[in-house]
């Protein structure tokens, strides 16, 4: 994997983490960040214990000792606790993609961006494994993720198109790359959980990109 970007990202959201610069934080901002992390940690613990469907927003707020109003001021839904919100994911994708040299072809740039940003190295491995397990065990969560990915696909396609030159046109190539990227990530989580738990998620996703880049000709050994 390429070296990590200098910006520190929040494990909960993928956004730039102001905690990396404590001097820049006001007391109120520190309190908000602490509350957000308390909600996140409580939710992840409950998801691991009870499953996603078995955990309600009320359960999370009680465990974190906050009100429902406070929860929804930080997260639009409990899915956002686990996967982050769409706007932050698209912004992170655009920031990572902009780091790729213009001479790099679109597929390679998207691949590197996925490995550097979407498979976020600041996110604890335990949380990534939990997400993979929940997706495997909870079919309702799979449906929620499909809806979320549909929105991400539009956002990612627009970012890829802007890199290609004409920001006013989201062409079929950009849409296909965005769809393939999300398919690789979704499949990677499944394969990692069911068949490749001894490997890293990065290794699994990288192999899937190899298969995709080879046009699925079957000339790369399957795991």
TrEMBL record:
Keywords: DNA-binding, Transcription, Transcription regulation. Residues 33-93 form the HTH tetR-type domain. Residues 56-75 bind DNA. The keyword S-adenosyl-L-methionine does not apply. The keyword DNA-binding applies. Pfam families: TetR_C_14, TetR_N. It comes from the Bacteria. InterPro entries: DNA-bd_HTH_TetR-type_CS (IPR023772), Homeodomain-like_sf (IPR009057), HTH-type_TetR-like_transc_reg (IPR050109), HTH_TetR (IPR001647), MftR_C (IPR041347). Residues 1-32 are annotated as: Disordered. PANTHER family: HTH-TYPE TRANSCRIPTIONAL REGULATOR RUTR (PTHR30055), MYCOFACTOCIN BIOSYNTHESIS TRANSCRIPTIONAL REGULATOR MFTR-RELATED (PTHR30055:SF238). This is TetR family transcriptional regulator.
């Amino acid at each position: 994997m390429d070296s990590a970007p200098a910006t520190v990202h929040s494990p909960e959201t993928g956004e730039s983490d102001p905690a990396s610069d404590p001097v820049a934080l006001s007391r109120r901002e520190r309190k908000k960040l602490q509350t957000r992390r308390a909600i996140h940690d409580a939710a992840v613990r409950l998801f691991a214990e009870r499953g996603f469907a078995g955990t309600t927003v009320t359960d999370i707020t009680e465990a974190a000792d906050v009100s429902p109003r406070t929860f929804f001021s930080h997260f639009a839904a409990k899915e956002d606790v686990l996967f982050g919100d769409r706007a932050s994911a698209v912004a992170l994708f655009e920031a990572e993609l902009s780091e790729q040299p213009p001479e790099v072809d679109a597929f390679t740039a998207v691949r590197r961006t996925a490995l550097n940003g979407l498979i976020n190295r600041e996110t604890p491995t335990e949380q990534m494994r939990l997400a993979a397990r929940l997706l495997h065990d909870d079919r309702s969560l799979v449906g929620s993720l499909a809806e979320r990915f549909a929105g991400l696909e539009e956002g990612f396609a627009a970012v890829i198109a802007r890199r290609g030159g004409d920001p006013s046109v989201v062409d079929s190539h950009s849409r296909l790359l965005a769809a393939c990227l999300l398919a690789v990530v979704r499949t990677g989580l499944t394969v990692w959980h069911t068949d490749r738990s001894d490997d890293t998620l990065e290794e699994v996703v990288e192999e899937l990109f190899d298969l995709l880049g080879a046009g699925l000709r079957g000339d790369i050994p399957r795991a």
